[in-house]
Design a protein that fits this description.
With 815 residues, the protein is of the alpha+beta class. Helices cover 19% and strands 31% of the residues. The structure holds ligand MIG.
């Protein structure tokens, strides 16, 4: 029997027939010290730490000994003082904060989390609670029938994970299916949502872990791991946004990405040589299809040796890259962890000399086969190895490479049981010296960390762009993520939506799927629809497997080329909005892509909705996910909405069926939105924004929006070089008014104009005023710099003027 089968069998056996689960017993005594409560129950110790009034950490040491308190995910360990009250009675200990109650039943020890009104949010299953079986640990919770679960990082299949069993073990599974589990990433974090109220749990354990959300039993769910600490964080919400903001405060947020990484990115396995790369670049510019990034897959290297070039195919990379840079392209290259075992190869030699590679307990080098053949693997959990790895980027950076695609970092190993590193291989683990079993799930994340930190060390004032396949909770601090080797099928297009959404609400906002599908060949229609979805995935990258026909956006005939150009144009027009959505993710952790249930948790219509989503708080995206569609049904949340394409207003809280011709997918805008956009450019850095266009969607209520802008490339924003403004809108029978606050921060954009588009304002207004002065009415929509124009057909008003830093108040006066 192959080894990994045995491994799986042992696990199965241990959780079923022969399991000896022992659950925590009666409370003997407890003590409390500020925000920390320590409870003794038989041989075990429970430690409850209140971090904030809505965040509690639970640790159980079944044998009374806590392992070193170490986490690759958690970055915030010091929290301000928090008010905690502890009271004791014969049958329970009650811990209360300003927002929640934690009742610890004494006989036996069981936890119940309640809100301040005494409603149960979450409770241990009475029969089992927290349990262990040898090194294995598990928590059983009560599962109300009307509670649903979301998050869990990267999971194929549906958005709502109720009644599924999931495993966390980073795995390379090309052409995965809806029921394939696990995949490449581990984020052991989820939401429970019930009747509009949410709580969150982060089980910070990097070992092989599993989550059974009511598959084994309909009224209990469980999570646990094969070893390691029973260590979880409980977020009391009450909204999904509170939870995600707090979770990302705990594990860190995505740093603001370079603006160019939000442009369109073109990839394939592989553009084999300089000639083809130049052809691709010309292909975009000649057809006026915008593009910012071209990727080089594994064949750019010399025999797949990382940090080298194949000089036959890329004779002068520096020259090639600087030439492409003049045309607005950036080059991203793939880097795999495997370092070819070749004593004439500099990275192997220096890696050995620095003691950076993984070894067996007896000191023998671990060798695994990947693309280059026999390889040694850097131990990214070793600080020395991280620095060594990062310094190796020197040459590629000097050649002008700016994007770092980290692949195969589950890590994936060919032709061995388990397809990865042997579990007994030793990792430095930041000095703890532990096994691969503990470090497997953080390997990819630590590779992205080494890459990000290394590149940033070498280019301190440029924001690094790293893209990864494998990661762990908190990985957004270093890298964007894509959903691995998908398939060119409608089913995979449909799956991309919930996968990106669950990743987004698991703390990773910079996500996307391989547009067009990696394996196989999409029809022109499928590619066009996938590209449309891609406008609203933060990572917009098309890719293809090797030995497949070309999949660039112009490969499907003239009609589709025109459609695809319009689609990518839309992405570039909306860049200011998209950049703002990413900014929001970087400061408060709320991602651009949001499941409807995340944004509208109290609307039960969205419990199972996974074919539409919010992008930012104002755009509702309804991608077309079926072949031959010409219309599509959309569920609108409460409130008022506008059709993005026609400006037609809709009442919310209803399902509508709208046109979805092949040229575009349905998009709705929330009434009150003030959407910033710009002119189409061929690459993000081509021209400064001009005009900055604000599209105002009237609401009967007042609305406001925050606007952020900076140089898009450096870290100067950390020193105040940014521009922030607040927009406000009031609408009454008399007038609709937009105000722009004075701009804050020292970033000064190039001189530009401002265009304000008031949508759906009704009949021709009497006048338009700016800061109290009447503006000149224009009779021609084009070619005016100052004044206003009434578009009678669309019943909208265009206002143009210079964009200044000062406060501005524009009123469209109706009467
Ligand atoms: O064993 O580098 O998911 O995007 O093109 C396959 C070749 C290795 C897997 C990645 C894919 C990439 C491919 N890689």
């Amino acid at each position: 029997m192959p080894l990994y089968r045995l491994f799986v069998l042992l696990l199965v056996v241990s959780i079923s027939a022969f399991s000896q689960w022992q659950s925590v017993g009666n409370v003997d005594s407890f003590s409390s010290n500020d925000n920390e409560i320590t409870i003794h129950a038989g041989s075990s110790i429970l430690r409850v730490t209140v971090l904030t009034s809505d965040l509690v950490r639970i640790r159980l040491a079944s044998e009374g000994m806590f392992p070193p308190d170490q986490s690759y995910a958690v970055v915030k360990t010091e929290w301000p003082n928090v008010e905690v009250q502890v009271s004791d009675s014969s049958d329970k200990i009650t811990i209360s904060t300003q927002e929640l109650l934690l009742i610890i039943k004494k006989k036996p020890l069981r936890l119940t989390f309640l809100d301040k009104a005494g409603n149960i949010i979450n409770e241990d299953a009475p029969s089992k609670g927290m349990s262990w079986d040898g090194r294995e640990i598990k928590v059983w919770k009560q599962m109300p029938l009307d509670e649903f679960y979301y998050g869990f990082g990267e999971k194929a299949g549906g958005l709502n994970r109720v009644h599924t069993h999931m495993t966390m073990w980073n795995s390379d599974i090309p052409a995965y299916a809806a029921d394939t589990d696990p995949l490449y990433e581990t984020i052991p974090f989820f939401y429970g949502i019930r009747n509009g109220r949410a709580y969150g749990i982060f089980f910070d354990n990097s070992y092989w872990s599993s989550f059974d959300m009511g598959k084994e039993s309909r009224n209990e769910y469980s999570f646990g791991a094969e070893a390691g600490e029973l260590n979880y964080y409980f977020f009391s919400g009450p909204t999904p946004k509170n939870i995600l903001s707090r979770f990302t405060e705990l594990v860190g947020r995505m740093p603001l990405p370079p603006r160019w990484s939000l442009g369109y990115q073109q990839c394939r396995w592989s553009y084999p040589n300089e000639k083809r790369v130049q052809e691709i670049a010309r292909g975009f510019r000649d057809r006026a299809i915008p593009c910012d990034v071209i990727y080089l897959d594994i064949d750019y290297m010399d025999g797949y040796r990382i940090f080298t070039w194949n000089k036959m195919n890329f004779p002068d990379p520096k020259k090639m890259i600087s030439g492409l840079a003049r045309d607005g392209f950036r080059i991203a290259v793939i880097v795999d962890p495997g370092i070819k075992q070749d004593t004439s190869y500099h990275a192997y030699r220096s890696g050995l000399a620095n003691g950076t590679f993984l070894k067996y307990p007896d000191g023998k080098l671990y060798i695994g086969k990947v693309w280059p053949g026999e390889c040694a693997f850097p131990d990214f959990t070793n600080p020395t190895a991280r620095t060594w790895w990062g310094n190796n980027f020197n040459m590629l950076i000097d050649d002008g490479v700016r994007g770092w695609w980290n692949d195969m970092n589950e890590p994936s190993v060919f032709d061995v049981p388990g397809k990865s590193v042997d579990l007994n291989v030793i990792h430095n683990d930041d000095g703890l010296m532990t096994t691969h079993a503990k470090n497997h799930n953080v390997y990819g994340m630590q590779m992205t960390r080494s890459t990000y930190e290394g590149v940033k060390r070498l280019l301190p004032n440029e924001r690094p762009f790293v893209l990864t396949r494998a990661s762990y909770a908190g990985g957004q601090r270093y890298s964007a993520a894509w959903t691995g080797d998908n398939v060119s099928s409608w089913e995979h297009l449909r799956m991309a939506v919930p996968m990106c959404l669950n990743l987004s609400i698991s703390g990773q906002p910079f996500v996307g799927s391989d547009i067009g599908g990696f394996i196989g060949y999409p029809s022109g229609e499928l590619f066009a629809r996938w590209l449309q979805l891609g406008v609203f995935t933060p990572l917009m990258r098309a890719h293809s497997v090797i030995n497949e026909k070309n999949k660039e956006p112009w490969e499907y005939g003239d009609e589709f080329t025109a459609i695809n150009r319009e689609t990518i144009n839309l992405r570039y027009q909306l860049l200011p909005y998209i950049y703002n959505a990413m900014y929001e993710a970087s400061v408060i952790g709320i991602p651009a892509m949001r499941p409807m249930i995340f944004e509208y948790p109290d609307d039960p219509n969205f419990i199972w909705n996974e074919d539409e989503f919010m992008f930012g708080s104002d755009l509702l995206i309804a991608p077309v996910l079926m072949p031959n569609a010409t219309t599509r049904a959309v569920r609108l949340p409460h409130g008022e909405w506008y059709d993005y394409w026609t400006g037609t207003p809709y009442n919310g809280n209803q399902s509508v069926t709208v046109d979805a011709p092949i040229i575009r997918m349905p998009i709705f805008v929330k009434a009150g939105a003030i959407i910033p956009s710009q002119q189409v450019v061929q690459y993000t850095g081509q021209a400064p924004i001009g005009p900055l266009t604000l599209t105002v969607y009237p609401t009967s209520l007042q609305s406001s929006a925050a606007y952020y802008e900076d140089d898009g490339i450096s870290f100067e924003y950390e020193k105040g070089t940014y521009l922030k403004r607040t927009f406000n809108q009031w609408n009454s029978a008399k007038a609709i008014t937009l105000t722009l606050s004075k701009s804050e921060g020292s970033y000064v954009p190039m001189k530009r104009s401002l265009a304000i588009h008031f949508v759906n304002i009704g009949t021709e207004p009497k006048t338009v005023e700016a800061n109290g002065n009447t503006l000149k009415q224009q009779s021609n929509p084009q070619g005016f710099m100052q004044g206003w124009y009434y578009d009678a057909q669309n019943k909208s008003v265009w206002v143009r003027m210079e964009d200044k830093k000062s406060e501005l108040r524009v009123s469209v006066v109706r009467e």
